[in-house]
Amino acid sequence: MKITSLKGIGIKTAQKLELLGIKQVNDLLFYLPLRYQDKTKISKICDLTFGQTALIEGQVQRTYLINTHKPMLVCEIDDGSRTLALKFFNFYYSQRAKMKTGSNIRAYGEARYGQHMIEMLHPEYQHFDDTPLPLQQSLTAIYPKSEGINQSTIQKAMNQVIKLLDEGEITVEEFLPIEILQQLHLPKLTDALQYVHQPPATADSNALISGQHPCQQRLILEEILAHLLAMKQIKQKIQTLYAPELPINDAAINKFCKQLPFQLTNAQNRVIKEIHQDIAKNHPMQRLIQGDVGSGKTVVAALAILAAFRQNHQTAMMAPTEILAEQHCKTINNWFDGKDIVFLSAAIKGKARLKVLDKIKNGVKIIIGTHALFQKDVIFSALGLVIIDEQHRFGVHQRMALRNKGQFESLQPHMLIMTATPIPRTLAQTAYANLDISVIDELPPGRQEISTLVISNTKMPQIAERIKANCQQGEQAYWVCTLIEESEVLRAKAATDTYEELQQWFPSLNIGLVHGRLKSNEKNTMMNQFKTHKLDLLVATTVIEVGVDVPNASLMVIENAERLGLSQLHQLRGRVGRGNKKSHCVLMYQAPLGKIAKQRLDIMRHSNDGFLIARHDLKIRGAGELLGSKQKGSVQFRLADLERDKPLFQKAQKLATDLIVQYPQICQKIIDRWIVAEADISNV
Ligand code: ADP
Ligand code: MG
């Protein structure tokens, strides 16, 4: 049944709905309420609590304007229990005229404490005479806002659809097996849909408003399942492809490890084993390594490279910044005796680039670089392994592009993805359901907690003392400029200004400067000088945020730390504390601090644990943000909420696995119902 067969839905509205994937009357049923309004009962003003949204009634006591910079209309009403002020910044004078003393008003809004009395800002309201207004029989469903479609249109259309469903004129297919629903004490789909669109008068309104009613949970479960099934389907599809077998023996591993200046941790050994097991098989590995900043992921990657290297296959390792890619290139170069390695970034141009491309085509074994690696004219000869470092910095498409490079004798490369943005388990299992996950949950021995200080930027002299003392002890420091400007030019300028200022503060120190505007070789020279301790203090923009590894640096000052998010602060701070030295991080802020900024800085001060910090970040910012803006859409749910629905996410994991085995034919149906044209939701 076409959506236009509903009264009130014309061609124009239908076109707008189609953009949301709604074409048929049935589809509209899955346009689900975002929240509810409770207009079933009148609350007494004296019973209202702060932040409560409620329906109230009262008699107008007086109506007046107050003139701040903009006039505001105030109407005080009293219900016999107390007086409340209705306030309006935007109003018509006719509105004021109607609010006569002694007349009756019903209002719906959020109660807040005002200066003199409790108040509601911009409430919905209605006038009424002696005859009382009728009350709603049930909670009112509020639908997500959508360009050009208003609430009442949707509500009216939905009333018709629910009636059709009720009368059996339309039906929705139940996909979840009845025994599973019974086991979980969840209702059938039809019942759940009817309930959430039109909750009965007797409904548990608290449960509904907080999204925890079984009828909502029923729908949420199916949404989560659809997501998991789609991801797992991608994983299975890739599993049917073939990859080169890259086995490696213990002798080779031991020989490689002997030359390292340290012993691998148990966690590193365990993860390396998992990788080696995967890549010895003839299907592509799809593994994500999570490990906190400084947990030693690079050497794990190197041991994967070793396997490919020994089997005469190429490895492409991609890093999000040029500085990091350069650093990896040096490190790996060292460990592989400078054999068979090339570097490629956008900064390599002209003849030099052609030379590199030629080597790649002719089978050079290790290729390290930036995004430049997946440009069209980069042709590999035997790509066996793709490693992506700090994957949260890359978009889905970039990763896909690199995977597609592996056309060698129709074999796909193995894929190793590394991230230092640890995310909570539930989120990881959901966002990366298409990947196997390994966790390096141990830091190398001897690491000391970084102690973090939060200081107002008016205390520069104190901070200067710290920097001096630190550098006089033969240790190094970073000074991070955080100007959040779109323009790299402005960022560079701010860093340059700071650099000049710091040179005046510290005439005896060797100070360097890196920012995104420097030429590639200038950046390299600067980083090398810092690495080899020719510089004491490095002034930098957030270009050093990821990956940079200079173990002798033991102090970091971050300017205007209040501007940065938690995971970014944690990443930045991870540039120190990489050796055995006691390290410090000074978070400078510009007073006054907002509530969230203060909360963030407190968390940083109290914790060094990336997982814990990520959990807080999830609460503050939500899942989409946490996974990085480039991946928005990869885990976006219409209904499900990672925090609130944690138990359901856990149940869904097992259920998804069972469904694939026991009811494969319904999996696709569930996916199709919930996932609208999102073919590339994967993290492939
Ligand atoms: P990340 O996980 O942040 O990428 P890196 O791979 O850069 O960490 O390693 C951080 C530092 O720790 C490097 O200087 C590296 O050489 C060192 N490192 C790695 N593994 C160990 C280990 N098992 N013991 C001691 N130091 C290690
Ligand atoms: Mg790293």
Q: Which small-molecule species are bound to the chains here?
A: adenosine-5'-diphosphate, magnesium ion
Look at the helices and sheets and give the structural class. alpha/beta
Please report the number of helical segments: 24
Give the uncertain stretches in residue-range form: 628-634, 677-684
In whole angstroms, the N-to-C terminal distance is 37 Å
Q: At the first level of CATH, what is the class of the largest domain?
A: Alpha Beta
In round numbers, the mean pLDDT is: 88
Helix content: 25-40%
Oligomeric state: single chain
Q: What is this entry, summarized?
A:
The chain is an alpha/beta fold. The strands form 4 sheets. A 7-stranded parallel β-sheet has the order 11-12-10-13-14-9-15, with helices on both faces. Strands 16-21-20-17-19-18 form a 6-stranded parallel β-sheet, sandwiched between helices. Strands 2-3-4-6-5 form a 5-stranded mixed beta barrel.
Give your account of this protein's structure.
This protein is α/β, with parallel strands linked by helices and 684 residues long. The protein has 4 domains: 3-37 and 140-199 and 213-224, no CATH class; 45-128, Nucleic acid-binding proteins (OB fold (Dihydrolipoamide Acetyltransferase, E2P)), CATH 2.40.50; 250-440, P-loop containing nucleotide triphosphate hydrolases (Rossmann fold, 3-Layer(aba) Sandwich); 450-607, Rossmann fold. The chain contains 24 helices and 21 strands. Strands 11-12-10-13-14-9-15 form a 7-stranded parallel sheet, with helices on both faces. Strands 16-21-20-17-19-18 form a 6-stranded parallel sheet, sandwiched between helices. Helix 6 (189-197) crosses helix 8 (214-239), helix 8 crosses helix 23 and helix 20 runs antiparallel to helix 21 (610-621). The radius of gyration is 30 Å and the shape is globular. The chain starts with 10 loop residues before the first helix and ends in a 10-residue tail after the last helix. Residues 628-634 and 677-684 have low confidence and may be disordered. Bound molecules: adenosine-5'-diphosphate (ADP) and magnesium ion (MG). Magnesium ion binds at residues 297-298, 389, 547.
